[in-house]
Specification:
This protein is mainly α. The protein contains nine helices and no strands.
Length: about 270
């Protein structure tokens, strides 16, 4: 039984959008479009890693170009897996990328985005305020001694705002929701609020945990204050992005994530 899309019967202000891709060709088109959408973020983050990799090139058994190529390929493959999982499972649990789907179907994207932009903007403003507040509370170990060493804005926008949403929300959260739906409801009906809530929370925690390696590299050690700061700070925004994805679609979460970085960057 195919579940109804989340919120589709309870909210008249959300347009139904294009039908979810059912044929193999349409699913491949959606997967390709989403993968290409996340690819610039992969390139941006690998490019940002070039200086530190070059500075430590003598430590690696492979030449620098091979390290860079393998790093990019690894992330691109993970992105492809996340996109594939989402394309395969999202329609079963009512999750969507409505704007991209409308574009691929040759339909007008405007009406779909109009239902997403305001929640996305509100989430982005809240996220920017949260990032600014966190910057005032950050442990000393996480405050860079050289502001010029901070992650470039283009990486935050392309990788953080787009690629991470494809990896975590479209891939991981969709998989978690599908698993919860299968286990708790035996794949029947539309996923209940509790199942959706668990998927949002767990994916937000995993999103936060994914930032621990970078925090360790910056701080030198994962102390209790560093771990608590990273987990609390990133989980909070992960909850916002997950809720936007569940209620409004992937693009709303992307808008919020991009805007949070864009608005907070001059303040940090």
């Amino acid at each position: 039984m195919n579940p109804q899309p989340l919120g589709s019967t309870a909210r008249d202000d959300v347009p139904a959008g294009p039908p979810e891709p059912s044929s193999k060709a349409s699913r491949w088109r959606l997967a390709g479009a989403l993968w290409l959408l996340g690819l610039p973020g992969v390139v941006a983050v690998v490019w940002a890693l070039l200086p530190p990799l070059a500075a430590n090139a003598a430590m690696f058994p492979l030449p620098l170009w091979a390290i860079v190529l393998l790093s990019g390929l690894q992330t691109a493959v993970l992105l492809a897996l996340a996109v594939g999982v989402g394309v395969w499972l999202a329609p079963r649990v009512g999750l969507k990328a409505p704007a991209v789907s409308a574009w691929l179907a040759g339909q007008s994207v405007g009406p779909v985005l109009r239902a997403q932009w305001l929640p996305g903007v509100l989430g982005g403003v809240a996220g920017a305020a949260w990032l600014w507040a966190l910057s005032r509370l950050a442990p000393e170990a996480l405050k860079p001694s050289d502001p010029g060493s901070a992650m470039p804005l283009v990486v935050k926008l392309l990788y953080g705002g787009v690629t991470e949403e494809l990896l975590v929300r479209w891939g991981v959260m969709t998989l978690l929701l599908w698993l919860g739906w299968r286990l708790a409801q035996r794949g029947q009906g539309r996923p209940g609020a509790g199942v959706v809530g668990v998927a949002v929370v767990v994916s937000a925690l995993l999103f936060a945990m994914g930032h621990l390696p970078a925090a360790q590299a910056m701080a030198g050690a994962l102390t209790v204050p560093v771990i608590a700061f990273v987990l609390v700070g990133n989980t909070a925004f992960g909850l916002v992005a997950g809720w936007l994805f569940a209620r409004r679609g992937l693009e709303a979460a992307v808008i919020a994530h991009v805007l949070a970085h864009l608005l907070s960057h001059p303040l940090l």
